[in-house]
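Section 5: illustrative case.
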């Protein structure tokens, strides 16, 4: 039977190689967390728009959106679905950042500076916001867990103080800053880990980071895609052997096949928005992606 869309095409191709991948790298649910290094980009220039006369789709997030080889993020594959004659796609994501560090390193300010009316921003954080905000081993990444106005003060290694906000506060700022520049913010919930239990993907983060993400999108006036649920449902439909072939480590980061699958899932989430703000910018490749069933706003 012919696959109905790109997501099924990817899953069928992966099924052919999943047995080999399982033999090389047997993994179990609940395995120890994967490394989450703070990637340095000091020697590389940030991506920029190819054409100033076109709107730009900016991508902001962590290593699940952009990783170094052999790992791959979905932001590195999503450009396939957009027509470069109609829109620029600029990936400013970087590994090891959280909603907090992407802002306090000045990376978000650099994106806001480049934004112009008619642009779009895809924003996804959560993986590096876990842990205690004042744990030295966490490398200054975790936000306060919640979505209220609470703050805490930490002293950095250089003796300066930092005001740490809640995860929800940082996410609302992404949405509000984007709208202030006349651009469209689209906030996505974090992708799930590859953690299985009784044939289902565990949803432990849904009562915390996913909920706070959805609330931040609503209160800041951003569009929202529940990518966590879209991907989890997709994994459950494919089953564990197929999904095993999407990952370059135990449970967190994609290989090229996984990045392609998740990029298609993002497009399916965009298509489920009513209206879809990016509908007129798609390439022919996007025609094979059906709208997602999971909730979007």
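Designed sequence:
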């Amino acid at each position: 039977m012919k696959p109905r869309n790109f997501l099924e095409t990817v899953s069928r191709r992966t099924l052919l190689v999943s047995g080999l991948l399982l033999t090389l790298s047997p993994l179990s649910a609940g395995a120890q967390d994967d490394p989450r290094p703070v990637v340095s980009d000091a020697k590389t220039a940030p991506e920029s728009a190819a054409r100033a006369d076109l709107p730009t789709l900016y991508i902001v997030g962590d290593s699940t959106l952009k990783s170094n080889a052999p790992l791959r993020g979905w932001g590195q594959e999503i450009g396939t679905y957009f027509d470069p004659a109609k829109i620029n796609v600029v990936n400013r994501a970087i590994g090891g950042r959280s909603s907090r560090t992407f802002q306090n390193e000045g990376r978000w300010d650099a994106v806001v500076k480049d934004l112009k009316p008619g642009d779009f921003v895809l924003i996804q954080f959560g993986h590096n916001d876990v842990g205690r905000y004042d744990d030295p081993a966490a490398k200054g990444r975790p936000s306060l867990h919640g979505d209220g106005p609470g703050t805490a003060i930490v002293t950095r290694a250089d003796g300066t103080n930092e005001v740490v906000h809640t995860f929800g506060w940082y996410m609302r700022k992404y949405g509000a800053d984007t709208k202030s520049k006349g651009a469209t913010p689209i906030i996505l919930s974090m992708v799930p880990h590859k953690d299985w239990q009784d044939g289902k993907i565990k949803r432990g983060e849904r009562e915390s980071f996913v909920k706070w993400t959805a609330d931040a999108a609503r209160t800041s006036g951003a569009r929202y895609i529940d990518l966590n649920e879209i991907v989890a449902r997709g994994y459950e439909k494919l089953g564990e052997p197929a999904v095993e072939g999407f990952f370059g480590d135990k449970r967190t980061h994609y290989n090229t096949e996984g990045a392609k699958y998740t990029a298609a899932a993002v497009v399916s989430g965009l298509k489920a928005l009513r209206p879809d703000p990016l509908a007129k910018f798609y390439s022919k490749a996007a025609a094979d992606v059906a709208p997602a069933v999971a909730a979007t706003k």
